[in-house]
Queue: 2 jobs
Job 1
Amino acid sequence: MARRALITGITGQDGSYLAEHLLDQGYDVWGLVRGQANPRVSRVRRLLQDVQLVRGDLLDQGSLISAVERVQPDEVYNLGAISFVPMSWEQAELTAEVTGMGVLRMLEAIRVCSGITASRTPGSGQIRFYQASSSEMFGQVRETPQNERTPFHPRSPYGVAKAYGHFLTQNYRESYGMFAVSGILFNHESPRRGAEFVTRKVTLGAARIKLGLATELRLGNLSARRDWGYAGDYVRAMRLMLQAPVPEDYVIGTGRTQSVRELVIAAFEAAQLDWERYVVADQALHRPAEVDLLCADPKKARVQLGWEPTVSFEELVAMMVEADLRLLSEGADPEQDSSWP
Ligand code: NAP
Ligand code: G4F
């Protein structure tokens, strides 16, 4: 019988790529959707026609229990979160509830539905659980590159909430023997990335300028460095982690790091534009506390899971610029969430 997966965050970037990957692998895929009239659900219905939808919200314990009871999943991928770091200062409590406490509610739903009440042999739990942990937990980094043993020093309410979810996942593994793992994923991007994140903001900005739809692009800290990879590669790692013989956490990244300035140069080059004529550095877009440098050491994932990224930074930026040029030329409005390449 086909394995059955339940994905929270199905309307987001990673949810869409993971759903496609699991469908390709022969899974029955279910996506958790929330809200009375969430406009992003229609996009999922259009792009992911073979995904079945079930209602639920990470803020609502009962809804998660009902969803797990209905779907009876073999694997649960918890991708749902408030994931935009600046928003986590503006709505810190909501971020803690969704991005942090949401992990507790999902783990509890699995524990209750599986009838787990006491400690078991590690890995013996029936439902396998993946938590979307983040390199934001490393924050003010203690060493470079960062690996599974690098200590955390989160720099935003988002990073703190992710650290809670990470340790809780570890704790449910140790307390109840659940097959519960975290992927500590570094930044990953794609043409489906939200327009608020810097890569997409830059590729959309370059495309708009190229097409005469804008005259400048305002950005914050150009010196921050990130390890940027392709989302399509990273969702493969999520599935591999749940197929491993024992539950363990893994760092997923490319091992290369670039600055926002280098990102801008690459994107404007792909659009054949001189970035210095259009990019305006805006102090108002700087964060209260910045993560200056992230760079992954993905050796464990390479050795134990056989996982490798396949798309380079340069290929990724070119892919995104090309997709945005096409989208805007067709008259689509990426801010409206209606279009998804
Ligand atoms: P994304 O595009 O922002 O998607 C976030 C998803 O969370 C959306 O589907 C959203 O659904 C859902 N969500 C928000 N509030 C919810 C709630 N109360 N209940 C249930 N679902 C809720 O994020 P992404 O880039 O795909 O990332 C997926 C996960 O990986 C996130 O947890 C993120 O923090 C983590 N992560 C991402 C990266 C990265 O570089 N992309 C790196 C490390 C970790 P609605 O349509 O209902 O709002
Ligand atoms: O693209 P960003 O907003 O991503 P950030 O904060 O690194 O977070 C993303 O990656 C995390 C993994 O490390 C995920 F957990 C998280 O959910 C999210 O997907 O910003 C990247 C960098 C920052 O240093 C920021 O200060 O770009 C800098 N930046 C400079 N100007 C800007 C801008 N970021 C945004 N969003 N907008 C700007 O105008």
Job 2
Amino acid sequence: MNFSDSEIVASVMASHDYSIAGDAPSADIILLNTCSIREHAENRVLGRLRELQHLRKKKPGLLIGVLGCMAERLKEKLLEDKDLGMRIDMVVGPDAYRQLPQLMADAETGQKAINVMLSVDETYADISPVRYAANGVSAFISIMRGCENFCAYCVVPYTRGKERSRDPESILNEAKQLIAAGYREVTLLGQNVNSYSWSDKNSGAEIRFSQLLEMVADLDPLLRVRFATSHPKDISDELIRTIAGKDNICNAIHLPVQSGSTSVLQRMNRKYSREDYLERIKAIRAIIPDCAISTDFIAGFCGETEEEHRETLSLMDEVGFDFAFMFKYSERPDTLAAKKYKDDVPEEVKTRRLSEIIERQQKHSLASNHRDLNTCQLVLAEGASKRSEANMMGRTSRNKVVVFPAGNTVPGDYVMVEISHCTSATLKGKIASE
Ligand code: 5AD
Ligand code: SF4
């Protein structure tokens, strides 16, 4: 989401004749787009801001701004030099990016500038993102903003505000522009894409996410379409059928479960039980037998007992996730959990539980990759692999990373790759046909 938002910021800045500097020392303005999801993320941002202060000595007019969720959460506190131990010139929340040029002009006069107003309707629909860090093959399209689910641990509803969907026409136009520019894959982004809803101005008819997904997929059969993220409580059979019905909608669903224990899920305010989640997995597997399923886990949420933790491990074995993002619970100020529960799982217990989850996931990821050995996979090539220019990296529909000798392949090509080796993170093979 931040990657995508930064492309919007770049576009707002470009329309006021600013351009992207190659690196921080050569920049006149440095904007950090920030995340508040865990304390660790915020600490890293504060560390980076401290590091950047020395650049002011060489460039007295340098402006440093904090954008995004941390700006929204900490507001004026980020402008208190004494408390913070450093100077920040601008604080801009996620719904105020259109005001950046004005805020910049204020900051240039030496005043500190802040706008952290949240909006009920801002979707930046008319802004064409500047794809300054994209690979030319795969791009994000933001389809909605905000979240009103209020999961007990989560800061997002407070930092990103009310949920709002973006006009489908502007989404389709953005996808068409990407196709015209040679892109081959789009990921439709939202905190909870299943809540996407738009009423047509003329007919009043509702457009839901599954319909939007189909409309984007129908633009071009060579365009791969992905989406993130889905909330388990409202991933519908209709959506699963839409994915099954189109070859170019990727067979990969990210469905964050957070915990395998119904009592923990209840405390988390997730609005589904372990059984509900398993029922949705069953529905996905029945409709799309070869669908990759990935997830998120939080280890050591408030009051989590050893038994509840073991339920997460047993759910992992039951589902066999292809991939997971795994985190230790980090209390966020003012969330429901911070108000209602004690962050009472000792740090060393959280660490041990997280490592058990990671270890279990590595086993499942490896098993999932083993199943792909000696098969041919349709891979969309994205660019040179990290380790060697002679190798190309790409992804399968199921979102598995594949590395193979590049031959004549260029980014954006579809190639059939015969898989011969794997680790828990990567598949390796050679081109079977172009
Ligand atoms: N502590 C740890 N992990 C969190 N997440 C969200 N809030 C927290 C928190 N307070 C994780 C969830 C979510 C992912 C984006 O980040 O797993 O799905
Ligand atoms: Fe946070 Fe829950 Fe909204 Fe996801 S659905 S952004 S975890 S409140």
